[in-house]
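Structure in, sequence out. Go:
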């Protein structure tokens, strides 16, 4: 299964997406954004099983891919403004990285459960992620999704119009990566 002791991944192997929601009385005016963020991961193996996973995300390089909803489509200048607002929420100049480090990796139905710590904005919290592994001969496709709350990490979601329209506290983080086994 895994002949290599360490696997290295990065954004060229897949994508990490953050999807936001919109709430408040004027929510229909706002866009549900999909952001992409560059990332790197290291998987250490022991006895043909993943034993440790570390992921680092580069906050300052986030990009706004698209916005759904809103009164009109998301234009280029609006994407730039949304990016700027997101960087302010993250305080990217002061906290340029998001980190996830496992404490335990256990086999689960169709994949693995990664229990560890997530660090965002200088705050570290316990976090678990379920990943699904689809073994396709020599290729593995790895997918996962988790929910992260701004408030758990001391972040204040972007809002405007005195809070009548704001980004929801919960965002969805999803990822997919492919790798030749071994």
């Amino acid at each position: 299964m895994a002949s290599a002791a360490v696997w290295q991944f990065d954004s060229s192997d897949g994508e990490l997406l953050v999807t936001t929601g919109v709430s408040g009385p004027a929510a229909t005016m706002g866009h549900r954004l999909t952001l992409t963020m560059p990332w790197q991961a290291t998987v250490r193996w022991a006895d043909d099983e993943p034993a440790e996973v570390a992921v680092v995300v580069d906050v300052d390089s986030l990009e706004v891919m698209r916005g759904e909803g809103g009164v009109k489509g998301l234009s280029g200048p609006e994407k730039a403004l949304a990016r700027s607002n997101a960087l302010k929420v993250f305080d990217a100049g002061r906290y340029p990285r998001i980190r996830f480090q496992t404490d335990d990796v256990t086999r689960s139905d169709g994949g693995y459960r990664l229990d560890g710590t997530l660090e965002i904005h200088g705050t570290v919290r316990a976090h678990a992620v379920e990943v699904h592994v689809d073994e396709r001969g020599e290729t593995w496709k790895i997918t996962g999704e988790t929910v992260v709350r701004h408030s758990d990490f001391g972040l204040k979601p972007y809002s405007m119009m005195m809070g009548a329209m704001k980004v929801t506290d919960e965002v969805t983080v999803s990822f997919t990566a492919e790798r030749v086994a071994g």
